[in-house]
Amino acid sequence: MEIRGVDVDEQGRCAHYRSGRDVVANRCATCGEYWACHACHAELADHPFGRMAVTAEAAVLCGACGHRIGYPTYSTAPACPGCRHPFNPGCALHAPLYFEV
Asked: Any idea where the CHY-type domain is (predicted)?
């Protein structure tokens, strides 16, 4: 599993988001890669972040265990369904950057 970004650790935390709960990577619809955050994508990619359809499967990747989920599950789950690692509830504020909501 590869999570792209700036200074990404083993669970997907990047230079911009490093709390214990920042383990989610979002898939760019344009390049198909999982990114630690929108700021990492803006710094490293040569294209705008392509927002995923809310119906897309595997749009979100848990950096703790590699479990892939869709937006409906991610948007309502306080933790990864695969490993129960808690997600950062503040990430909901960024949903329009990653998903066609």
From this structure: 7-85
